[in-house]
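In practice, a research group might receive sequence data for several interacting partners and want a quick structural hypothesis before committing to experiments. The following worked case mirrors that situation: the sequences arrive first, and a predicted assembly follows.
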Amino acid sequence: MRFDPRRDRLSSASLACIAGVFVLQTLTPQHEEVAAKKEVAAKEAAPAQAMHAPNLGGQTSVAADGGHAFSLPVPGLSREDRRAFSVGNSFFRDNWVAAPASAEGRDGLGPHFSANSCSACHQEDGRGLPPIAGVGVGRGSVLFVSPANADGAPHPVYGAQLQDQAIEGVRPEGRIELQSQRSFVAFIDGSRAELERWDLRVQDAAYGPLGEVRMSLRVGPQVIGLGLLEHVPDAVIRELADPSDRDGDGISGRVHEIRGADGRASIGRFGWKASQPTLDAQVMAALHGDMGLTNPTHRAENHTSSQSDAVQAASGGDPEVDAHKVARLAHYCRVLAVPMQRVPTNSEELARVQRGAQTFQAIDCAKCHVTTLTTDESSPIEQLRNVEFHPFTDLLLHDMGEGLADNRRDGDATGREWRTPPLWGIGLIEAVNGHTRLLHDGRARSIEEAILWHGGEGQRSRDRFVGLTKRDRDALLAYLKTL
Ligand code: HEC
Ligand code: HEC
Ligand SMILES: [Ca+2]
Ligand SMILES: [Ca+2]
Ligand SMILES: [Ca+2]
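A structural hypothesis for the assembly, expressed as tokens:
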């Protein structure tokens, strides 16, 4: 379904507020507002076409809002691309097993692993959970570890990731324990919000004490719209960066420059620290790091020579996952579509959401959560070429302050830097995953808490949020929930 903003005034006004291009249009004079309300009323009378939502993913968007909202392919794919999507879907969803197994082509899991399928951490192609006792254990996070004195380097015994599961006959590397810490934030109107964060601990370390380590806990993000983000031209991302803050707005933003094994330079786009430049690279890192599956880029099993039980484990082939399967998995992630914004049909609610969209611009959220980007012609998928879309990210690294810091280097990203996450789909995580945990480690229990954690380059924006009236805060949150 192609979305045409000119055909539909309601959608075009709301699209204007997400894109922030025609801000004037959202500040319409009184008589036009009345006209708009009349039109809304007319729409309510015709429920069949009431919800014609703006296209966050450009013409690749899908109208979807239930539990499977993140699981649809972009419309109009060729038959071949749809078939590849279905095959990729089964590789993504199905469990891998230990070798040797009769499940031909699905073995080689481990010896250590964090989960036995991609979808365990990206459930319904959505958001994973941190290992909170009784809630999130084994449901969607990874733990990176480095020695304290070698920032970002793999641990000499445990490797770059600490996996809390293992195949039979091999010990899990340890158990991740979170100790909750609470704090409070006061708003200008006197109301308070409670924030939660954790102290991380590894218990039952199987291969001797870890020693002093730096740890980074991260949850799996929703995997929608990635084929669009993959083909935003490098020049556009570089243009958004302002590493020495020349315009003095307190926001810098840095490109994560990646140097591949072949010496080629590229821009990191994927992961919470933008440490992977392409979907293929991200998929192969996940296969190896999260599931213990060797592949064309990572040929050696994911254990160190000090882990003797793991060293003796059977292999599922060399590599366990071949280039063909990697391509199917990457294709699957590439074409998962972005659901349309769910614009309210009720005129009061619509006015509130539009007010929230204006606030989003006014308090500089959009300086990092950039509303509009465009792909070039380089995608292998025709539908993803030359698409204007609304991801709410600049794909850049930002220093987000001490509160969010994991204090562990990842490639060129420091322990305080994080990539601006896209906000599309953020209001649907609850419907898809049954929770509203946000931020890289899932510490925020709501959108509001996620905003309150913003520090560093995001501090000014966060302070302006705290200074808003309750009415304006609620409008902003209502707006974000429509994304
Ligand atoms: C144990 C949990 C876990 C498993 C299993 C897992 N992932 Fe992930 N995934 C993550 C985390 C955590 C991140 C963020 C990584 C980072 O910050 O570097 C991520 C990031 C991604 C991204 C980038 C998303 C973005 O917005 O940047 C893609 C694509 C992805 N995973 C695909 C896969 C595929 C395909 C598989 C299966 C081969 C898989 N994942 C298995 C946890 C997991
Ligand atoms: C300086 C850049 C910057 C600004 C300004 C900024 N953000 Fe963010 N935002 C980020 C980064 C980076 C993260 C990820 C932090 C993390 O996970 O540790 C983030 C995370 C979020 C999240 C959680 C996303 C998720 O997927 O878990 C929400 C919601 C959010 N921001 C909303 C806002 C709003 C609303 C504003 C304005 C009040 C704002 N941001 C201003 C950079 C920014
Ligand atoms: Ca293996
Ligand atoms: Ca390990
Ligand atoms: Ca700046």
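Before designing any experiment, note the following. The pocket of calcium ion (ligand 3) is lined by residues 108, 110, 292-294, 301, 316, 320 (CB under 6 Å). Residues 1-52 have pLDDT under 50 and may be disordered.
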